[in-house]
Amino acid sequence: PVDGMDETDGMDGAEEMNRMGRAGETGDVDRLLKRGVAYCIEGLVDRGVECYNEAIRVDPSRAECYVYRGSAYLNGGMPVPAIEDLTIAIMLDRTSADAYHYRGRAYSMAGEHEKALEDLGHALGLRPGDAEMLVSLGRAYGEMGDYQAALREFSRALVFDPTCALALIGRAAACGALGHLKEGLRDLDRALEISGSSLPLYMCRGRLHDLMSDHTAAIGDYTQAIACDSSHVQAYIARGCDRGNTGDYSGAVEDFTAALDRGGPEAAAYTLRGNAYSGLSDHEKALEDYDAAIAIDASCLPAFYGRGRALSELREYGRAIEDFT
Q1: Of 14, 116, 259, 304, which is least packed with CB atoms within 10 Å of its CB?
Q2: Mind spelling out the 3-state secondary structure of 13-28?
Q3: Which residues have C-beta within 8 Å of that of residue 21, sequence separation ≥ 6?
Q4: Are 112 and 82 in contact (CB under 8 A)?
Q5: pTM, whole model, 2 decimals?
């Protein structure tokens, strides 16, 4: 033995070094997880996944690493690798509410609704009253078409967190599906008060106004949505439809043109603009748009019908009959 150190001291020193090594690895993993979260928040999911990959390499037995990577896959719209990672996390730690929650959401995204309900129920058993999990459960029921159950879960979420905008939005959507339109509008108004200006909220409220045949109010909502994001194609299409419904065919033409300029669904947008030109009695331009729609999608029945009407107005009855048949 070296002077001043016996065999016991050597063993203690080795254990201390191992302990310090494990502590160093833990710190590395924590830093990698935090860095991965930062990348994902910035929308750099691939960079975030790289950090999670490295964290797993450093400590493959830590369930949290798989939860983070699984949630990144989930948010990137990749349910299959998300389910794989989250299953590993659950095998490593069966008390991880987050692992069950995210796997439930992944199952829902993959269309495996019964498995989704089972996992989300298990997550809530581990963490009762979690508003975010209740929102996920409400969405799962909504995707199954069980809007009453969805309404119940969104309402439960609001009991635990009355300011949960996602629960208000979800409950409004369920109300819309069930025909409770005024109640849905109240929820969306409240969500806007909480969240401030929001494109999804304006789009959702616009749709509810449409269901109530309040096209003027819907136009206002879609205009607000466009103010939030001037590249949002569906907002232009929705506003164009409502402008047509209120007789503003020139405004409708402008909106459908804007949708086409921004890469919107061409066959549908050309057909809708053709309808607007027909409303302006500009049947030649309407015919051009219907032709364009049919050239893109030969199965677009509304375009054939619109072209038939335009041809009738232009007294080309033989061609009109062909389109109607």
Answers
A1: 14
A2: HHHHHHHHHHHHHHHH
A3: none
A4: no
A5: 0.77
